[in-house]
Structure formats: C-alpha cells, structure tokens
Amino acid sequence: MAEGSELVLFDLRTVHDNFDRALIQDDDVDIKMYLAAYNELYKFFQLMGSVFSFVSSDLKQKIDILAELISKDEENFVTIKSMIQHETENNLLQKADYTNGSRTLLRLHRGLDFISEFLRQLGELSDGDKTSACCQDAYNKTLAKHHPWIIRKGAVVAMYAMPTRELLFKKVCGDNVQRNLDILPKMLQVTADVFKRTDKLYEINNLHALP
After folding, report:
1. Distance between CA 127 and CA 139 in Å, rounded?
2. Cβ(48)–Cβ(172) under 8 Å?
3. What value does the mean pLDDT take over residues 9-34?
C-alpha cells in the first residue's frame, strides 16, 4: 500500500458514527449526517472499481443533488421529515423543472438497502470465500427490482469477477481490515435503524412510488 493511500481507504467507523448522529428525535433523520455516512459508502464502491460502476456514479449524482439543495435552503432540508413536509406542502414533488430531494433521497435509500445487505453477507463469509454470489444475492433481493433488465443483466455479469472476501477487504480497507470487521455488526445495526426510520417516513407520506 503506497504511502498516503490511507486517505482514500474505506472506514466503517466513519459510516457508523455519521449514521448514529443522523438518528435525531424519535423518528427523524438528519440529512447532512446521512450524506456524510453515504459519502464514505460511496468510497467503498469507488475502491471496488468498474464492477460497481452501475451504482456508484448514480449514488454520487444523488449525493451532490441533495448537498446542493441543502446549500440553497438549509432550513427546509435539515431532516428527512422537514424535507418531505416542505416539498409536499409547496407542491414540489410534481414540479417539472425541479429536482426534488424526496425522490433523490429515495434512490439513496434503495441503494442503502443493497449496500447493507451486501456488507451483512460479507461479514458471514470466510476469507477464502468468493464474494460474487453474495453480492448477486444482495442485489437481486434489493436494487434489482428497481432496475430495468439491461442494467440487471450487466450488473450480475460484472459481479462474477469479484474477488475473495480477503482480497476485497484488503483492497478497500488496506491494513485496517480487522478494525472494520470489528465495527461491522454495530455499523449494520445503526444503518438498519436509519433505513427503518427513512422507510417509515416514506411510507406514512405515501412516497415509496415516486417516479
């Protein structure tokens, strides 16, 4: 590992801490902290390379859109609840020339379902196990249902080239593999809490079917 490469490595502790801070009140999620955690997850896909290009470029675009919305209107984009309320009350969800935050975050929400399921299954593998099967399984259980056939086919084919768990973690974590494996269970729990809260907010506002 070249000197200085620690700066770009993936750190599950960063994901855990930011998602933990994102859980505010009893039923809401802070968007800035959500995006901070997601930026670290995006790093994971970047480090994996072209095999995840089908999802990484889309995630980055959605993160940037939400960051811009926050910078322009921080008051209404503090939490997921306040964002949904603002965009619903001002009829922004159907506005043709407006890229709304609720739809954008829904795409990240769906991506998080895939990421957390993939990481959960990785945690159950042995070092010598190939990661392609669990990645395909996680994808088919989550993101695949939101993708057209051509993307699904390309994604599953690309996953055949994935390495063993040991090589995957070394690639994205460098010398910090064990530290990341140690925090993985706690990270998955707090990520599940964030996912459930977000899912509930979209459910009670009937927004899961946003086009």
Report:
1. 21
2. yes
3. 97
